[in-house]
Specification:
Strand order of the largest sheet: 5-4-3-6-7-8
Distance between the termini: 32 Å
Strand content: 25-35%
Number of strands: 10
Order of helices and strands: EEHEHEEEHEEEE
Structural class: alpha/beta
Bound molecules: 1-O-pyrophosphono-5-O-phosphono-alpha-D-ribofuranose, guanine
Domain Phosphoribosyltransferase: 22-169
EC number: 2.4.2.8
GO biological process, one term: purine ribonucleoside salvage
Number of helices: 3
Shape: globular
Pfam family, one: Pribosyltran
Protein name: Hypoxanthine phosphoribosyltransferase
Length: 185
Protein backbone atom coordinates (compact mmCIF):
# COMPACT_ATOMS: atom_id res chain seq x y z
CA UNK A 1 0.00 0.00 0.00
CA UNK A 2 1.39 3.41 -0.96
CA UNK A 3 2.10 6.12 1.61
CA UNK A 4 1.16 9.61 0.41
CA UNK A 5 4.43 11.57 0.53
CA UNK A 6 5.16 13.51 -2.69
CA UNK A 7 8.13 15.95 -2.83
CA UNK A 8 5.78 18.85 -3.56
CA UNK A 9 2.03 19.18 -3.24
CA UNK A 10 -0.65 21.59 -4.48
CA UNK A 11 -3.20 22.55 -1.86
CA UNK A 12 -5.92 25.15 -2.39
CA UNK A 13 -3.98 26.59 -5.34
CA UNK A 14 -0.68 26.97 -3.45
CA UNK A 15 2.50 24.88 -3.74
CA UNK A 16 4.18 23.30 -0.70
CA UNK A 17 7.47 21.37 -0.42
CA UNK A 18 8.76 18.85 2.13
CA UNK A 19 10.06 20.37 5.36
CA UNK A 20 10.19 17.42 7.81
CA UNK A 21 10.45 13.96 6.25
CA UNK A 22 8.49 10.88 7.26
CA UNK A 23 11.72 9.31 8.62
CA UNK A 24 12.51 12.38 10.77
CA UNK A 25 8.95 12.43 12.09
CA UNK A 26 8.91 8.74 12.95
CA UNK A 27 12.28 8.89 14.71
CA UNK A 28 11.29 11.88 16.85
CA UNK A 29 7.83 10.49 17.67
CA UNK A 30 9.43 7.24 18.79
CA UNK A 31 11.88 9.15 21.07
CA UNK A 32 9.00 11.10 22.60
CA UNK A 33 7.02 7.90 23.23
CA UNK A 34 9.99 6.35 25.01
CA UNK A 35 10.49 9.47 27.13
CA UNK A 36 6.83 9.51 28.17
CA UNK A 37 6.95 5.77 28.96
CA UNK A 38 9.84 6.35 31.38
CA UNK A 39 8.29 9.42 32.99
CA UNK A 40 4.78 7.98 33.46
CA UNK A 41 5.64 4.41 34.47
CA UNK A 42 3.04 3.20 37.01
CA UNK A 43 0.88 6.36 36.72
CA UNK A 44 -1.69 5.27 34.07
CA UNK A 45 -1.77 8.68 32.30
CA UNK A 46 -4.63 9.79 30.07
CA UNK A 47 -3.69 11.32 26.72
CA UNK A 48 -6.04 14.07 25.59
CA UNK A 49 -5.75 14.81 21.90
CA UNK A 50 -6.94 18.06 20.34
CA UNK A 51 -9.00 17.36 17.22
CA UNK A 52 -8.67 17.56 14.41
CA UNK A 53 -5.00 18.30 13.90
CA UNK A 54 -3.44 16.06 16.57
CA UNK A 55 -5.07 12.77 15.55
CA UNK A 56 -2.19 11.39 13.47
CA UNK A 57 0.57 12.47 15.86
CA UNK A 58 -1.35 11.07 18.83
CA UNK A 59 -2.03 7.72 17.20
CA UNK A 60 1.63 7.31 16.20
CA UNK A 61 2.85 8.55 19.60
CA UNK A 62 0.68 6.14 21.59
CA UNK A 63 2.08 3.18 19.68
CA UNK A 64 5.49 4.05 21.14
CA UNK A 65 4.18 4.28 24.71
CA UNK A 66 4.91 1.01 26.46
CA UNK A 67 2.98 1.51 29.71
CA UNK A 68 -0.69 1.34 30.69
CA UNK A 69 -2.49 4.50 29.48
CA UNK A 70 -5.83 5.82 28.21
CA UNK A 71 -6.99 8.28 25.56
CA UNK A 72 -9.74 10.85 25.03
CA UNK A 73 -10.28 13.80 22.70
CA UNK A 74 -11.58 17.32 22.68
CA UNK A 75 -12.23 19.44 19.64
CA UNK A 76 -11.86 23.13 19.05
CA UNK A 77 -11.16 25.46 16.19
CA UNK A 78 -9.56 28.86 15.84
CA UNK A 79 -8.22 28.91 12.28
CA UNK A 80 -11.27 27.97 10.18
CA UNK A 81 -10.06 27.82 6.57
CA UNK A 82 -7.44 30.53 7.01
CA UNK A 83 -3.65 30.55 7.51
CA UNK A 84 -3.86 32.99 10.42
CA UNK A 85 -5.65 32.55 13.73
CA UNK A 86 -9.08 34.14 14.10
CA UNK A 87 -7.97 35.09 17.63
CA UNK A 88 -11.01 33.31 19.03
CA UNK A 89 -11.32 29.69 20.14
CA UNK A 90 -14.55 27.83 19.42
CA UNK A 91 -15.36 24.77 21.55
CA UNK A 92 -16.69 21.96 19.36
CA UNK A 93 -16.44 18.90 21.67
CA UNK A 94 -15.46 18.33 25.31
CA UNK A 95 -13.76 15.23 26.71
CA UNK A 96 -15.96 12.40 28.02
CA UNK A 97 -13.53 11.03 30.63
CA UNK A 98 -13.51 12.09 34.28
CA UNK A 99 -9.96 13.43 34.75
CA UNK A 100 -10.21 14.38 38.45
CA UNK A 101 -6.98 13.18 40.15
CA UNK A 102 -5.67 11.79 36.85
CA UNK A 103 -2.31 12.48 35.19
CA UNK A 104 -3.18 14.24 31.94
CA UNK A 105 -0.94 14.55 28.87
CA UNK A 106 -2.38 17.16 26.51
CA UNK A 107 -1.40 16.43 22.91
CA UNK A 108 -1.28 19.12 20.21
CA UNK A 109 -0.02 18.97 16.63
CA UNK A 110 1.19 22.57 16.69
CA UNK A 111 1.54 25.52 19.05
CA UNK A 112 1.54 28.72 17.00
CA UNK A 113 0.25 31.81 18.84
CA UNK A 114 -0.33 29.59 21.90
CA UNK A 115 -3.96 30.71 22.20
CA UNK A 116 -5.44 27.20 21.82
CA UNK A 117 -3.03 25.56 24.27
CA UNK A 118 -3.55 28.26 26.91
CA UNK A 119 -7.33 28.00 26.50
CA UNK A 120 -7.37 24.19 26.83
CA UNK A 121 -5.05 24.03 29.85
CA UNK A 122 -7.23 26.54 31.70
CA UNK A 123 -10.35 24.58 30.76
CA UNK A 124 -8.85 21.24 31.89
CA UNK A 125 -7.48 22.68 35.17
CA UNK A 126 -11.09 23.29 36.25
CA UNK A 127 -11.66 19.52 36.16
CA UNK A 128 -9.05 19.08 38.96
CA UNK A 129 -6.56 16.64 37.40
CA UNK A 130 -3.60 15.48 39.53
CA UNK A 131 -1.26 16.89 36.88
CA UNK A 132 -1.26 18.26 33.36
CA UNK A 133 1.75 18.09 31.05
CA UNK A 134 1.72 19.22 27.45
CA UNK A 135 3.27 17.80 24.32
CA UNK A 136 3.29 19.33 20.87
CA UNK A 137 4.79 17.94 17.70
CA UNK A 138 5.61 21.43 16.38
CA UNK A 139 6.30 24.72 18.12
CA UNK A 140 6.52 28.00 16.24
CA UNK A 141 8.69 29.60 18.90
CA UNK A 142 8.78 33.10 17.40
CA UNK A 143 5.01 33.21 16.83
CA UNK A 144 3.96 32.31 20.37
CA UNK A 145 2.46 35.28 22.17
CA UNK A 146 0.50 33.54 24.94
CA UNK A 147 2.11 32.21 28.09
CA UNK A 148 2.13 28.42 27.68
CA UNK A 149 4.10 25.66 29.38
CA UNK A 150 5.38 23.12 26.84
CA UNK A 151 6.83 20.03 28.49
CA UNK A 152 7.69 18.00 25.38
CA UNK A 153 8.33 19.48 21.92
CA UNK A 154 8.96 17.47 18.76
CA UNK A 155 10.39 20.18 16.50
CA UNK A 156 10.91 23.92 16.92
CA UNK A 157 10.05 25.58 13.60
CA UNK A 158 9.99 29.12 12.16
CA UNK A 159 6.78 31.14 11.96
CA UNK A 160 5.74 29.79 8.54
CA UNK A 161 2.55 27.99 7.52
CA UNK A 162 2.95 24.20 7.48
CA UNK A 163 0.81 21.34 6.20
CA UNK A 164 0.53 17.54 6.47
CA UNK A 165 0.69 14.77 9.10
CA UNK A 166 -2.68 15.89 10.50
CA UNK A 167 -2.28 19.61 9.77
CA UNK A 168 -4.65 21.02 7.15
CA UNK A 169 -5.09 23.95 4.83
CA UNK A 170 -8.87 24.55 4.59
CA UNK A 171 -9.35 20.89 5.66
CA UNK A 172 -7.10 19.45 2.93
CA UNK A 173 -3.65 17.88 3.31
CA UNK A 174 -4.07 16.09 6.66
CA UNK A 175 -3.35 12.73 4.99
CA UNK A 176 0.18 13.70 3.87
CA UNK A 177 2.77 11.55 5.66
CA UNK A 178 5.31 14.39 5.97
CA UNK A 179 5.29 18.04 7.04
CA UNK A 180 5.28 20.53 4.14
CA UNK A 181 5.91 24.27 3.99
CA UNK A 182 4.78 26.92 1.50
CA UNK A 183 7.09 27.30 -1.52
CA UNK A 184 9.34 30.36 -1.37
CA UNK A 185 9.41 30.31 2.40
O1 LIG B 1 -1.37 28.20 18.87
P1 LIG B 1 -2.56 28.55 18.04
O2 LIG B 1 -2.35 29.83 17.27
O3 LIG B 1 -3.83 28.56 18.82
O4 LIG B 1 -2.69 27.43 16.91
C1 LIG B 1 -2.68 26.07 17.18
C2 LIG B 1 -3.99 25.40 16.89
O5 LIG B 1 -4.30 25.55 15.50
C3 LIG B 1 -4.67 24.29 14.97
O6 LIG B 1 -6.04 24.04 15.15
P2 LIG B 1 -7.19 24.59 14.17
O7 LIG B 1 -7.94 25.68 14.84
O8 LIG B 1 -6.58 24.92 12.83
O9 LIG B 1 -8.16 23.34 14.05
P3 LIG B 1 -7.85 21.88 13.45
O10 LIG B 1 -6.89 21.21 14.39
O11 LIG B 1 -9.17 21.21 13.42
O12 LIG B 1 -7.26 22.07 12.08
C4 LIG B 1 -3.87 23.31 15.80
O13 LIG B 1 -4.41 22.02 15.76
C5 LIG B 1 -3.88 23.92 17.17
O14 LIG B 1 -5.00 23.48 17.93
N1 LIG C 1 -2.10 23.68 9.03
C1 LIG C 1 -1.69 24.54 9.94
N2 LIG C 1 -2.45 24.81 11.02
C2 LIG C 1 -1.97 25.69 11.92
N3 LIG C 1 -2.52 26.13 13.06
C3 LIG C 1 -1.65 26.99 13.59
N4 LIG C 1 -0.56 27.14 12.83
C4 LIG C 1 -0.74 26.32 11.77
C5 LIG C 1 0.07 26.02 10.61
O1 LIG C 1 1.19 26.52 10.37
N5 LIG C 1 -0.47 25.11 9.74
Amino acid sequence: MAIYKPETVECNGETFHVYITQEELQERVSELGEELSRHYEGRNPIFIGVLNGAYIFLSDLMRHVEISCEVDFLKLSSYGDEKVSSGEVTDLKDIDADIEDRNVILVEDIVDTGLSMKYIVEKLQKKKPASIETITLLHKTEATRHDVQLDYVGFRIPALFVLGYGLDYAQEGRNLAQIYILDGE
